[in-house]
Amino acid sequence: MRFWHIASSAIALGVAVIGWCYWTAITDPIVRQADVPLLPPDSGLPPLRLLLISDIHVAGPDMTPTRLSRIVGQINALHPDAVLIAGDLVSDKRIATRTFSLRDAIAPLGRLKTRLGAFAVLGNHDHWRDADEARYELARAGVHVLDNNAAQAGPLVIGGIDDAFTGNDDLPATLRSMAAMKGTPILISHSPDPFPDVPPSIGLMVAGHTHCGQIRLPLVGALSYMSAYGDRYACGHIREASKQLIVGAGLGTSLLPLRLGAVPDMWMITIRPRDRIEN
Fold it and tell me: Are 198 and 169 in contact (CB under 8 A)?
């Protein structure tokens, strides 16, 4: 009798923990803030607000197009000057209750409202599904697809590295494309792993892919960050010498529709002129 009491209590606790992890996964993303002095000093340029999202992973039960539409509304209410999308638009979770076409998954992004535009790179899941179709649907939604190249966005030059996890990245080609344009350079990558090879002339790179661990167990931590550098670039705002890296936790989930210790997030990055002392 005592055994069954202990077993039933353990089962109840397990169900409660799983429920909590699922509830965490479907909560609205929190908005984290970063202040990055990048623009030339005395340029007279006003600060720019760049909104970073990553790892949308559209698939049931946790991330449907309807939920993504609600998050797009949350983004629009923040009035960003540009939106940076760091890959993995879809998910292929084995236990997904429903998968969606790339058209249905990406369509809500067509309602993003920005002054300078929305810019995206592909992630490993996008390549595994259909990279060409993902590029087409992003363009159809009015999102600029950066595929080892760059685009002008007002006073910014935004470069995008294709996915490093699947070996489709070409940093030298991206840098050449950025060098052909005039403006303050910013780099988008799905994985943070290219960061050590980024030259000091690129003051800011943004990325996703790690999900900040997605499920981080007490005392143990995350089982994996899917990075060659372990937890070095796992999450958040990282500074190394003159370069800065911001890695988001993402909006959706991979493998399991659960989160623990790594809530969904997006980053509002304020780009402002450097002080003379920072120059």
Answer: no
- What is the model's pTM? 0.93
Report d(CA 58, CA 26) in Å as an integer: 12
Helical H segments across the chain, by residue range: 2-26, 65-77, 102-106, 124-140, 171-179
Phi-psi region of 211 (alpha: psi -120 to 50; beta: other; left: phi over 0): left
Provide the residue count of the chain: 279
* Helix (H), strand (E) at residue 223: none
Closest by CA position to 119, among listed 212, 177, 50, 168: 50
**Cα–Cα distance between 56 and 251 in angstroms, integer?**
5
Model confidence pLDDT, tens digit, residues 223-252:
888 999 999 999 999 999 899 999 999 999
Cβ neighbours, 10 Å, residue 276? 8
Q: What is the domain-level CATH number for residue 127?
A: 3.60.21.10
Q: How many structural domains are present in the chain? A: 1
